[in-house]
Amino acid sequence: MPLTDINWFYYAAPQRFVPLAGRLVPWFGAAAVLLGLAGLWVGFFVAPTDATQGEVYRIIFVHVPAAWMSMIVYLAMAFWAGIGLAFNARLASMMALALAPTGALMTFLALWTGALWGKPTWGTWWVWDARLTSELLLFFLYIGYLSLHAAIDDPRRADRAAALLALVGAVNVPIIYFSVQWWNTLHQGASVSLTRSPSMATTMLTGMLLMALAFWAYCIAVALARLRIIALERERDTVWARRALEAA
Amino acid sequence: MNWASWSDFWAMGGYAPYVWGSFGVVAATLVAELWAIGARRRALLRLVADGSGSEEAA
User: Fold this and answer.
1) Which of A131, A138, B16, B51 is 20 to 30 A off residue A87, Cα-Cα?
2) Which residues of B fall below an 8 Å CB-CB distance to A?
3) What digits encode the pLDDT tens for the residues A83-128?
4) CB contact under 8 A, A54 and B15
């Protein structure tokens, strides 16, 4: 089948994507549960005690996945918001809106678990270093996106205004990522890199990566589930949405 | 195996409040998020079911 004959935008219509999303949610949910169980098993029963930090290092198995997802979800949110803004694509804007609460939650969890890890190891719940401050800013950007969207009555105008906020705020994500290189931070530098071998024990790394994948699958499942509801809310006067809602 | 007993496991080497305070809040917020999506879905179904939920009716 020639590439020109494929309708690349087939699933850009809410009517077509909503049933697909409904079928995908259970798979990503199951993956999240399985990966999470595997990650927790490795994290608590396989990975050894840390020589310096003792058992408290195990917070890494939720702190790093939450922090990674806080950044990945923001980039996805900004991407879809940008697509929705540039191409007037309703579904893309809805996806950005669906991602925002989950991203905000991930950011909160990164900050919360980080504080609980910092108190026993650094001696402080908080410090205004570059990484912590920029992650806190990320949380405010998520809240700002949701607040701005909620403040505007017309959903399409709200989508566009919030998209601008999301896009401008996206510059914060590389700042968070590179903060530990660019500035003198209390937060440690990267232990995991695309170019160097990791500086942590293999079993610890395995547990961390399993939990990261679990969090990723969870975020996708939850965002797709929320997207379905947002799409059905907005399109509830259409025939297809009525049928989908009556079937539920 | 890391733990001599279950009580060792829950004690987390003395760091129990920090470790379980972290994992507990993660679990609680994930459950809360799932519940909130369910609540939003139920609200939408109620809105549509009583017939007054269309934009034409508003």
Assistant:
1) A138
2) 1-3, 9, 12-15, 17-19, 21-23, 25-26, 29-30, 33-34, 36-37, 40-41, 44-45, 47-48, 53-56
3) 999 999 999 999 999 999 999 999 999 999 999 999 999 999 999 9
4) yes
What residues make up the domain containing B17? Answer: 12-49
**Residue B58 falls inside a structural domain:** no
Task: Give long-range contacts, CB 8 A cutoff, 24+ apart: A133-138.
Answer: A134/A172, A134/A175, A134/A176, A134/A179, A135/A67, A135/A70, A135/A107, A135/A110, A135/A111, A135/A176, A136/A111, A137/A172, A138/A70, A138/A71, A138/A74, A138/A107, A138/A169, A138/A172, A138/A173, A138/A176
The values of phi and psi at residue A21, to 5°, are -60, -40
- Work out the minimum CA distance from B17 to partner chain A, whole angstroms: 9
**B26 is a domain residue:** yes
Q: Considering only CA atoms, which of A109, A32, A66, A61 is closest in space to residue A205?
A: A61
In a domain, B29, yes or no: yes
Contacts of B23 in chain A (CB under 8 A): 59, 62
Is residue B28 domain-resident? Answer: yes
Q: Residues A38-91: pLDDT tens digits?
A: 999 999 999 999 989 999 999 999 999 999 999 999 999 999 999 999 999 999
**Residue ranges in A123-201 assigned as alpha helix (H):** 130-151, 155-169, 172-182
A242/B contact by beta carbon, under 8 A: yes
